[in-house]
Amino acid sequence: MRPILRRTLLGTLVLSLPALPLALAHASSAERNTSWPHKPVHIVVPVSAGGSADKLTRTLADRLSALWGQPVVVENVAGASGTIGAARVAKAAADGYTLLQQGEGLTLNSLLFPQLPYDAKSFTPIIKAVVNPQILVVNPGTGINTLADYIARSKSKPQSISLGLPGNGGIAHVAHEILSQETGAKVNYIPYPGGGPAALDVLGGHTDATLITLAAVTEYVRAGKLRALAVTTSYRSDALPQVPTMAEAGVPGFSVESWQGFFAPAGTPDAVVQKLNRDFQTVLQAPDVRQQLESAGFKIAGGTSSELDQSLQSERPRYAKAIKSAGLSLR
């Protein structure tokens, strides 16, 4: 009986061996999901360094790195109004290790460009991090002191004011086209690959003005290096409370608010997306981070990934109407 028993036990063991690596693989996969992240996370910022999107992302990346115990690498991939950076993330592995910083540019680009290397279904929303005004600023040497001065000069001498745009077809471009339609102001647009270089050229006197996310130029305005004429929102910014809204400065009903958030490639596991959302929320609500961002001019937004998705859906018809009304096209 012993040889028979021995052969039976041996056969049972051999039959069970093929299932062992599979079981280990499943266990390893489960462990990886619960321990995310276990390697560096890359966040692609689709504009040049130095602008508001870059400042926001680097502020959060430092805190996320400390929270996760992993490096969080910020990559500036500028070009084609943010579409090059977005395309890189759209093609990345859907594992949460490559993320995209973006805002309403995702919607605007889909409305303005005839062909894109991605579509709205290429990304999974994570969180709307902040909302913020755009702000119209000029070099003090222009002699332009108010929004009324700016409009008067751009109407009496069309194209005489050079306006740096932080991206062709971005929110600043759309906002200024709406301003032009409502006031008759005509300027010479000069596109840049981001807010950083656009602001630097106004500081250096190479261009006269820029319409830009407020947080990109807050310190320059406070230092008197740039003169702020108005913000695009219906409310003043707590960071620069002395700056009027465009409605207050002579353009009744004008209101444009921009936002910035984060996305993952489509197909990223929901458990990873929800962890990302929770951890971004944690970092955004940290007192020192909140104070730093609000001082720069950002307003903390937050919310769930599904709320960001709903926001994307609701803003599309609004921007489509604004673009059509302004006659703006990059086709």
Topology (SSEs and partners):
Elements: H1 2-16, H2 19-34, E1 41-45, H3 52-68, E2 72-76, H4 83-90, E3 98-103, H5 105-112, E4 123-138, H6 147-156, E5 162-165, H7 171-183, E6 188-191, H8 195-203, E7 209-213, H9 218-222, E8 227-231, E9 257-265, H10 270-284, H11 287-296, E10 299-300, H12 305-326
Parallel strand pairs: 1-2, 1-3, 5-6, 5-7
Antiparallel strand pairs: 3-9, 4-7, 4-8, 4-9, 4-10
Structure description:
- The chain is α/β, with parallel strands linked by helices.
- It folds into 2 domains: 41-131 and 259-326, Bordetella uptake gene, domain 1 (D-Maltodextrin-Binding Protein, domain 2, 3-Layer(aba) Sandwich), CATH 3.40.190; 133-231, D-Maltodextrin-Binding Protein, domain 2.
- The protein has helices at residues 2-16, 19-34, 52-68, 83-90, 105-112, 147-156, 171-183, 195-203, 218-222, 270-284, 287-296, 305-326, and strands spanning 41-45, 72-76, 98-103, 123-138, 162-165, 188-191, 209-213, 227-231, 257-265, 299-300.
- Strands 1, 2, 3, 4, 5, 6, 7, 8, 9 and 10 form a 10-stranded mixed β-sheet that branches.
- Helix 3 (52-68) crosses helix 10 (270-284) and helix 7 (171-183) packs parallel to helix 12 (305-326).
- The chain starts with a helix and ends in a 5-residue tail after the last helix.
